Amino acid sequence: EYWDYLDVFSKSKSEHMPLRKPWDHGIDLKEDFPPKKGRLIPLSQTSPVFFVPKKDGKKRMVQDYRYLNEWTVKNNYPLPLISQLVDKLKGCKLFTKMD
């Protein structure tokens, strides 16, 4: 059933970056991290993918990003106070919860 997604990982689609969108964000990488061009490149180390069983008998795909996490710059910033968040939500009528 996963063979339907093989074209997502095609070499030709990895040769150029997708169009920029307003919601794009970046992940800061350490200076000695191999990719410098900003596109997909093969790495000698991978992030293993495997499937774990769910309660309903289906499988959930999970990926181990510990290797890549070693190359990212930690983004340390203070968390807002709850009182500040509540003040920002005053007058709002619609809320969304995502898992």
UniProtKB/TrEMBL annotation:
Residues spanning the signal sequence: none
Source organism's superkingdom? Eukaryota
What SUPFAM superfamilies does this protein map onto?
A: DNA/RNA polymerases
Q: PANTHER family attached here?
A: RIBONUCLEASE H, TRANSPOSON TY3-I GAG-POL POLYPROTEIN
Q: This chain belongs to which protein, by name? A: Reverse transcriptase domain-containing protein
Q: Which organism is this entry from?
A: Scleroderma citrinum Foug A
Taxonomic lineage: Eukaryota, Fungi, Dikarya, Basidiomycota, Agaricomycotina
